[in-house]
């Protein structure tokens, strides 16, 4: 496996590449071009620039998260073909810059959703949390306002104040679209892009819906094993694979994550692992916690063991962490707790390798 750390770039991340390099066992960064509007082509040069910066700090840059999918593709509008062409060009350019894995999601309107970006835990750390009671009866605009008041100016992707102005229009466009309709649009997209991804050596990795349930009445199609089966069947290629995000899938306790890793790993479809732990209080009321198994509901040993057993050689990253030790900044994406998480995952991997490996 390749241990990686998400990095928001020299302008937007106060964590430096040197700090990331100082985390034991860290092999690379997961990056993106954050200033290209969704739907436009990602050029090669800025990707090569990140690669150069990473390599100057002993890190590889082979993984992108995310090249976002334009809403017209999810909606299946006639304009989607041009956006798909652009996506294909972005993939070709990414491959030229040495990229091997591209994470994306297919959630309508919003990316991941939380009701609290800084819920205090018993020890004074703060975490991202979701409580469906707080969403019931509210409009996305109400929610966004509440989150903004409580987030040091950071907002979740897709929840930017400028974008919220277009919300009513977007919601109208999705009227009448059910899961099957959205699935057809994903299939259309995958049939167009996966052959190119395969040709240029890129593995696509769709991220699960987070939380894996309909939010504000919008359809969601990446929620559980059954959904993953349907997506895997759309295009039979190792380039049509998954990001197994333990915290996203794990917020539904029916999802057996080690089983999911083993099943889709055997099919060669596990292309990216996001590892984090979560504490579920009741269905759709959860908060994130430190990575260690005993602190949350997920058995990290079983998860890492499953990855080990499928011979996983792709990127793993510690997903969100708590904010601890007085650190401020982007909720979920601080340095300290993600570094602890990475170290914990490396410790599990090393122990498993020592007891089960060929060495
Ligand atoms: C949530 C995070 C997400 C993820 C995007 C992928 O678990 O990992 O921000 O990066 O949804 O497109
Ligand atoms: Mn994730």
TrEMBL record:
Described purpose of this protein according to its UniProt entry: Catalyzes the dehydration of D-mannonate.
Swiss-Prot/TrEMBL cofactor(s): Fe(2+); Mn(2+)
Keywords: Iron, Lyase, Manganese
Catalytic activity annotation: D-mannonate = 2-dehydro-3-deoxy-D-gluconate + H2O
Enzyme class: lyase
Pathways per UniProt: Carbohydrate metabolism; pentose and glucuronate interconversion
Origin organism lineage: Bacteria, Bacillati, Bacillota, Negativicutes, Veillonellales
HAMAP family: UxuA
Family: Belongs to the mannonate dehydratase family.
Enzyme Commission designation: 4.2.1.8
GO molecular function: mannonate dehydratase activity
Iron in keyword set: yes
Protein name according to UniProt: Mannonate dehydratase
Superkingdom of source: Bacteria
One Pfam family linked to the record: UxuA
InterPro entries linked to this entry: Man_deHydtase, Xyl_isomerase-like_sf
Species per Swiss-Prot/TrEMBL record: Megasphaera intestinihominis
């Amino acid at each position: 496996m390749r241990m990686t750390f998400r990095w928001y770039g020299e302008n937007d991340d106060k964590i430096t590449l040197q700090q990331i390099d100082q985390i034991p066992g860290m092999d690379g960064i997961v990056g993106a071009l954050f200033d290209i509007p969704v739907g436009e082509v990602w050029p090669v040069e800025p990707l090569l620039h990140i690669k150069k910066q990473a390599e100057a700090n002993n890190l590889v840059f082979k993984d992108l998260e995310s090249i976002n999918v334009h809403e017209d593709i999810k909606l299946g509008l006639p304009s989607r073909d041009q956006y798909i062409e652009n996506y294909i060009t972005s993939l070709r350019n990414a491959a030229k810059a040495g990229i091997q894995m591209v994470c994306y999601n297919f959630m309508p309107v919003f990316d991941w959703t939380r009701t609290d970006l800084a819920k205090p835990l018993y020890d004074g750390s703060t975490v991202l949390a979701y409580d469906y009671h707080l969403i019931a009866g509210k409009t996305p605009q109400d929610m966004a306002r509440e989150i903004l008041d409580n987030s040091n100016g950071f907002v979740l992707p897709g929840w930017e104040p400028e974008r919220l102005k277009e919300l009513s229009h977007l919601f109208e466009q999705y009227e009448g679209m059910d899961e099957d309709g959205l699935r057809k649009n994903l299939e259309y997209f995958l049939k167009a892009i996966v052959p190119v991804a395969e040709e240029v050596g890129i593995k696509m990795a769709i991220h699960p819906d987070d939380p894996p349930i309909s939010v504000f009445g919008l359809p969601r199609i990446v929620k559980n094993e059954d959904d993953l089966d349907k997506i895997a069947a759309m295009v039979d290629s190792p380039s049509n694979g998954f990001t197994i995000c333990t915290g996203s899938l794990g917020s539904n306790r029916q999802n057996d994550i080690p089983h999911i890793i083993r099943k889709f790993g055997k099919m060669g479809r596990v292309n990216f692992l996001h590892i984090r732990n979560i504490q579920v209080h009741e269905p759709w009321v959860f908060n994130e916690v430190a990575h260690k198994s005993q602190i949350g509901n997920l058995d990290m040993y079983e998860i890492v063991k499953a990855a080990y057993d499928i011979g996983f050689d792709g990127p793993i990253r510690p997903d969100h962490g708590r904010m601890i030790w007085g650190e401020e900044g982007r909720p979920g994406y601080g340095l300290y707790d993600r570094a602890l998480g990475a170290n914990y995952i490396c410790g599990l991997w090393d122990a498993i390798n020592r007891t089960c490996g060929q060495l």
